[in-house]
Design a protein that fits this description.
Length: about 130
């Protein structure tokens, strides 16, 4: 039996931005908002609330995000696979970020209702948290 997860829909709309590899991280991202910054040997990617997104860069806007509720250990198996399969079966493309504590699943805002319905139909639960 597949494990069921509690999910929290974050309020913000997010932008996924690609900056040049050696670009400095803009200072605005030190302000305490939820931001994901990833640098590889090919690029600097930043996921941020749309109101903070850098300008004049390659960018995708209009994303929403589910956070898997609670902290998970590194030995937890199948979290992303379970949730991504459910969304893939509903024909919803996702962008996933994992942190030390949990996983974040980004998807286009126009798929919000369809994503919630698909996850609920699979037995996952949505929780509300004050931010």
């Amino acid at each position: 039996m597949e494990k069921k997860f509690k999910l929290h829909l974050l309020e913000d709309k997010f932008a996924i931005s690609k900056l040049p590899l050696f670009e400095d991280v803009p200072k605005i991202f030190s302000k305490g908002e939820m931001v994901f910054i990833m640098r590889t040997d090919e690029e600097l990617s930043i996921i941020s609330p749309e109101f903070m997104a850098p300008t004049n860069v390659q960018q995708e806007i209009g994303y929403r995000c589910f956070r898997v509720d609670g902290q998970m250990g590194f030995q937890e198996v199948g979290v992303v696979a379970t949730l991504s399969k459910c969304l893939a079966d509903a024909n919803i493309s996702i962008f996933v970020v994992s942190t030390f504590n949990t996983d974040y699943i980004f998807f286009r805002e126009e798929h919000l209702l369809k994503a919630v319905k698909a996850l609920q139909a699979a037995g996952h639960e949505f929780v509300h948290k004050e931010q």
